[in-house]
Amino acid sequence: MLAILWKDLLIELRTKETFVSLLLLGLLILVVLTFAFDPTSPLRAAAAPGALWVALIFAGTLAMNRSLLREREHDCLDGLLLAPLDRGTIFLAKTAANFLFMVAAQVVLLPLFVLFFNLPMVATIATQTPALLLGLLGFAAIGTLFAAVSLRTRAREVMLPLLMLPLAAPLFIAGIQASTQLLAGQPFAAVAHWLRLMGAFDVVFLVVGWLAFEYVVEE
Amino acid sequence: MNPTDRLLLPATLAAMLGALYLIFVAVPSDAYQGPVQRIFYVHMAMWLNTFTAFAIVGVASLLYLWRREARWDHFGRAAAELGLLFCSLGLATGSIWAKPIWGTWWTWDPRLTLTLVLWMIYAAYLLLRTLATEPQQGATLAAILGVSGVVDLYLINRAVYWWRGIHPAVIVTREGSSGLNDPLMRVTLIVCMLAFFLLFCWLMRLRLRAARLQDSVDTLRGALAPAAP
After folding, report:
1. How many Cβ pairs within 8 Å bridge chains A and B?
2. How many domains are contained in chain A?
3. B164 CA to chain A: closest CA distance, Å?
4. Quick one: angle between helices B39-67 and B135-165, nearest 10?
5. Residue B1's pLDDT is what?
6. Distance of alpha carbon A106 from alpha carbon B227, whole angstroms
7. Where would a tag sit more exposed on chain B, N or C end, judged by fewer CB atoms within 10 A?
8. CA–CA min distance A15, chain B (Å)
9. Assigned CATH class of B3-209
10. Which domain holds residue A124?
């Protein structure tokens, strides 16, 4: 598992293509959404987490499509499948790689987001990080699983969001709610149920993906 | 035609006519809601079918992944199609009822949100079947989605309830709690649910038979294809 993760990270370090495209796309969506929600209004704190999550969802979806498409392009997936590995392990490694890419992009996006919406820097980053990490983990798990599914279909770029977003609805509701309330100055205890829900989602889809990945990649 | 089919069709027809008679003629109007409330009997029947269908999709998907038998795939597919049909009808009848009673076609009531998300999952399920590059693989992939959908159901449910639960503006009116006081109302509801459930069974059998026929056509075609010059 670590070898696959290391391979993905190494490719990424050499090319930086996923990271840069994720970052720019996230940034772009954030800017567009800033136009949509007046960033100077006193209500901005209510709209801001929504903007952050939407930027994350769209950029992340495209990045995950890339991550498995890359394996497909040079038939690398076949090579991976030939390796004497449990298929679930491949899933976990790919999920970990996608998770790390999104976290890396998020590390840069979050301060920019704070600047754009003119929010308190340290407090926002400190409160948003746990919710974002939980959200990204679940998103990486379900995204990796269904990116592999959509690889097997025509119109695969469209299929991924269609398959994944409805299933990920609880994750987004919980994430956006937790973010909004934390940003409004609520203590962590007030959003504990949302964080637990996201944690449960992460566990469920890591397990489902781990078990189901074998069926997805078989020829 | 086997005996079950021979019985099922007339039984459905009879129950359907009975339900129509009860809804439009026999049952008294609701004291507060007036005649609009009559749509509730049909609406409730839609939900019974929708959730039965989606339960079948979940179980059939799991069995298909486990046993790899085509019939479980047929079951899943047929149930998903019917589930989506009755889910759409349920949303439509609900909306028609909600407009005069709640004053709006749609609210983000947890039940409505849950249903909408369900609808989208199963629409994606059917789309996945259509767009899969190979039918065999499509069946497997759809089964994975079917299982994920059922696993996810509890989480979606929690999320939508908490989501609107925090805000005070939840519409808590439930048709059931407003009380079907007249015994005839309860009879109507039961007959109506029975009628639509029979319809569901009948459609399900038709759809399964069509799937089996399709399979044999495909097999025959496969057997004949190499013989062609």
Report:
1. 84
2. 1
3. 10
4. 130
5. 59
6. 59
7. C
8. 31
9. mainly alpha
10. 2-217
